[in-house]
Every structure is written in C-alpha cells, then in structure tokens.
Amino acid sequence: MRTTIRDIAEKTNLSITTVSLVLNKKPNKIAKSTKDKIFKAAEELNYIPNQVARAMVRKSINIIGLILPDIQNTFFADMAKGVEKEARKYNYRTMLCDMDNDEQKIYQYLEMLYQNGVKNVIIGASDEGNVNKTLFSMIKQFNMNAVFIDQFIEDEDVSCVSVNNEEGGYLAAKHLIELGHKKIGCIAGNEYAKDSSERLAGFKKGLKESGIELEDDMVVHGNYTLESGSKCAEYLLKKDITAIFAFNDMMALGTMQAAREKRIDIPGEISLIGFDDILFSKFFPVSLTTISQPILDMSKKAVKILIEGVDKDIFQKETVLFQPKIIIRESTRKL
C-alpha cells in the first residue's frame, strides 16, 4: 500500500499537521532536528507525495502539460527535451501529449490534463492550424495557463514564443541568390498555416529584391513530414530548377530521398536548403544548409513565462520573437 503522511506521523510520534507542514514545505517554525527526523522516516517508508491530492487543495499541480503535433518530427522531440530540462529546474515535471498529427486529440488532451489537476500547458504549433476559438474557449473554461510555442497569435490574450519566420525565409532567398540561383522551387507547409505563409512571404521578398518573381507553380505544399517532402520533391524535380527551399528539415530529407531515387546529385545538380536545424541535419546524406531556430532557447523561455506567471499568480500577455540564422553546410553550392 502507498505510504501516507499518517504512516510517517505514527513512525515519528509526531502530529499529522507537523508532518504535513514539513513535507509540503509550508512556512513553519519547526526545529531542524524534527524536520530531519520526518525526512528520514519518509525516505525509509518510500513516501511519494500524492500530487493529485495536492492539486485538489492548491487547484493546480507541479506538472506542465506539453501538447505537440508529432513527436516523430525531431524538431518537436528537441522541443520536448528543452521544455522537460527547463521545467525540472523549477521542480516541475512534464506530461507529454503527442497528437500524432490528429487535430482532434488536442481537445481530448486538454480535458485529460484538466481532470488530472494540470492547469499549466505549453502548446506547440501544428501545420494544420490547431489555434481556433474552440481551443481558446476550453483553455478559458478550464482556467488553464497556456503558452504557445513556435507560433505567433495576435488576436488572443495569450503568451507566445516563436521565431521570425519571415526573416528566415528572407535569409534562405538571399543565400541562394548569392550563389547564383534564379530558378528555385519551394516545398512549403500547409497553405493555411501561419508559419508557412510567413516563410513564403520572406522568401518572395528576398527574391523580389533581386528582380526575381516566384511563380505559383514553383510552390508546392506538404505537411512538414518526410513523406510529404519526398512527394513534393518528385513534382519539383521535373521542373527546370537549380535549387529547392524546403520549409523544414524533415521535408528537406524527403527531398534528398527523392533526388537519390532519380539519381539527381545534391548539390551538384540541385542545391537544397531547409529550415529548423534539427539535431541530425548535419548528419544527413549530404549535410544540410538550413535556417536555424534556437529551439532550446525558445523552449526555455516558454517554461519561464509559464512558471513566472504561476509564481506571481498574474498572467500577462508576452510575445517573444527569436531571430533565425543561416547554417551553411554542404547541400548548397555556387553555380
């Protein structure tokens, strides 16, 4: 059976109130020797705090719910690692909720987290656009504290941590232009996804500054998966192009696979640039030139905003926009 505070009280011959004050770290004037006695007994009896019971009293729990679109995408795996590492510094645990690219799961996860006393959540961007009125209504109904990461939301009173996607697209365009490329294809995300439209806008801006117009048939839309990148690349590789900008590294990897199957050399025949700088992009068959998002710093900031709001019991809207940078590797070359 689970060890309770009553068991520790009996073992130490102290009152339940005294034991509870010490183990729950409540303000008290209890002698250090008594505290040490309680902690020793708790260790000997393998006492584990009942977090759900605590939540019923505090109306919250020291757990951050992290809802991500697809943990198979290394970008979100890196995000989860960053959130979990930072949360531990504040004595918080992380409950990972993987939507597996099923948009309906976000509502199920919010309800599950609420039922288990979790009211602090970090929500990652989805290519399909999981940000809608229903989502915000649930967050408000459940009295949850939410920070959105990798997405920028203007119309709602929520905190967001993201990267300057338009600047990232602009950097990709300028790099390819500097290498002499003019015939360029794009593998974008969902056409309704804000991050994708921002990257595309920045890319078009960079091209336009050099007098290059991006034709509509040079832009194809994937869903940020390796498979969609491969499928989109099959279409673009039939075009008269010298370079491809994939809007994330997973689709860039899919492009490499499609090129290899067609015996098209990267970067000999096609230069390729991605977006994200996921951990293993440097270990792709050809190390990937990419636009880097500081995902660990973004994750750290999202946790900090959430925890500071909990500590102050005041949540004010905060928007943090990180700047991307280009990482030049072997997948792009000068014409």
Automatic annotation (TrEMBL):
One of its GO terms (molecular function) is DNA-binding transcription factor activity. Pfam families: LacI (PF00356), Peripla_BP_1 (PF00532). InterPro entries: HTH_LacI, Lambda_DNA-bd_dom_sf, Peripla_BP/Lac1_sug-bd_dom, Peripla_BP_I. PROSITE patterns: HTH_LACI_2. Signal peptide: none annotated. The keyword Transcription regulation applies. Keywords: DNA-binding, Transcription, Transcription regulation. It comes from the Bacteria. Residues 3-58 form the HTH lacI-type domain. PANTHER family: HTH-TYPE TRANSCRIPTIONAL REGULATOR GALS (PTHR30146:SF109), LACI-RELATED TRANSCRIPTIONAL REPRESSOR (PTHR30146). This is LacI family transcriptional regulator. It comes from Dorea formicigenerans.
